[in-house]
Design goal:
heterodimer; A: mainly alpha; 0% strand; B: mainly alpha; 12 helices
């Protein structure tokens, strides 16, 4: 009985250490890869790289994300109004969510910072979905051209 | 103007920390007036100085004759007592009326005795008769009070005046049940919620009475073993960002995440969030494919 207890305790300690080590490695990997990926994507955009939209290719209609690549590119060049004209949803939802995502990244990679988990209100999901669907619908209406890319 | 004791920079009144060196001004900053020691203060104060300089009259001490000490302390005490008694006149010992547990009776008896005394100095027999009459004239309740006080049963007296004593056994049992985590406290608060750190209770017992609360320790949920519930906040943020890049996958992921948020069933919630995660990963890879292809 005692031996089994010692064994299980040792196993738990081993698992916890291995879990800790794994989490450290994972955090290191994510900590290095994520910013590297962002930098590479921005560099690729600046060199004229484009992002393919399957929905537009298949249906000819604009999806909520159409124009976001051009908006990101013009934003990197410093033209704010032009970026807003390409895709206003990027500024309404994309940028704040990007900031939250960056905060989550910091919280995951550097747990010692003591950042709190963001708490979204219950209506956040419904409001975001409603906004996205309304934007999607409006930009595809014949008369509304200012919302298009 | 006051100065910081650490760096000497001038500080304002009421300032807690020095603006130059950051030292905490725990004690009062250096005062403008010089600090006197106690002796210097006494010397400088004219009132205290005058009082100190005035001569004090010497009191004449009477030398009291100390009785001789012998090896027999009892005798010495007696001798001392005798000597003291010889000096002081005899004092008539006043008879103090007996104190009992019947304050009212004692008070009334004392009053009756005083009344008897204050009366004309009649013959002792007549005085005694008068006192006895005064005592007999006490109200009828006296014997009852005397009886209650004699028994010294304060609980019974309390019950009589304040109502019957409350049975606290039910309260004790309830209090004991509230803190007894071994049995579910369904009688008072419903099923007991599992808390973080509650690893001692067996799994089956813990989950049988628990509501569908996915905030349990380590994100575990019943019927899912050790699988961790995906973070729904992260899913939502990710899906919104992906919608701006690859809308189809992003919207599907967002819808599933919203559904999962509203679901109370943990199993369904896990399924929806896992599915949303799959869609989001797929959308991210799909959107990054041209970039990755170009990179390669």
């Amino acid at each position: 009985m005692k031996r089994s207890r010692i064994k299980s305790r040792r196993r738990r300690i081993f698992l916890s250490i291995s879990t800790l080590q794994a989490s450290i490695w994972l955090r290191a990997l994510v900590g290095i890869l994520a910013p590297a990926l962002v930098v590479l994507v921005c560099r690729w955009l600046l060199r004229g790289g484009g992002l393919l939209c399957l929905f537009h290719e298949l249906t000819g209609l604009y999806c909520p994300g159409c124009g976001s690549g051009r908006a990101a590119l013009t934003l990197l060049h410093g033209h704010l109004w032009e970026a807003l004209g390409h895709n206003p949803l990027l500024f309404l939802l994309g940028v704040p969510c990007g900031v939250l995502l960056a905060r989550e990244y910091l919280r995951f990679v550097f747990p010692g910072l003591g950042l709190r988990k963001p708490v979204l209100p219950a209506w956040a999901g419904d409001a975001a979905l409603g906004l996205i669907l309304a934007f999607w619908l409006l930009r595809n209406l014949p008369g509304v051209t200012f919302l298009g890319p | 103007m006051k100065y910081c004791p650490n760096c000497g920079v001038a500080v304002e009144d009421g300032q807690r920390y020095c603006g130059e060196c950051g030292a905490k001004l725990e004690f009062d900053p250096m005062p403008t007036e010089p600090v006197y020691t106690e002796n210097e203060r006494l010397k400088s104060d004219p009132v205290l100085n005058a009082a100190a300089q005035s001569p004090t009259p010497k009191s004449k001490k009477k030398k009291e004759k100390v009785p001789e000490l012998t090896l027999e302390p009892d005798i010495w005490e007696l001798g001392g007592a005798a000597a003291a008694a010889a000096k002081e006149p005899e004092k008539k010992e006043e008879k103090i009326p007996e104190l009992t547990l019947e304050p009212e009776v004692w008070g009334k008896k004392a009053k009756a005795a005083e009344a008897a005394k204050a009366a004309e100095p009649a013959a002792p027999a007549e005085a005694a008769a008068a006192a006895a009459a005064a005592v007999a004239a006490l109200p009828e309740k006296e014997p009852e009070i005397a009886q209650r006080a004699d028994t010294r049963d304060y609980e019974r007296a309390d019950a009589e005046y304040h109502g019957p004593a409350r049975d606290t056994r039910e309260d004790d049992r309830r209090a004991e049940a509230e803190h007894d985590y071994e049995r579910p406290d369904a009688e008072y608060h419903g099923p007991v919620r599992g808390t973080q750190g509650d690893y001692q209770r067996p799994k089956a017992e813990r989950y049988d009475t628990l509501p569908n609360d996915y905030t349990m320790s380590r994100g575990q949920t019943p019927d899912m073993g050790d699988k961790k519930m995906p973070d729904e906040t992260l899913m939502m943020i990710w899906s919104i960002v992906l919608t701006c890049l690859c809308s189809v996958c992003g919207i599907v992921g967002l819808v599933k995440t919203i559904k999962a948020r509203k679901t109370m069933d943990n199993v369904m919630k896990y399924k929806l969030l896992s599915s949303a995660k799959t869609w989001l990963i797929a959308g991210t890879i799909l959107h990054l494919l041209p970039f990755l292809a170009n990179l390669l």
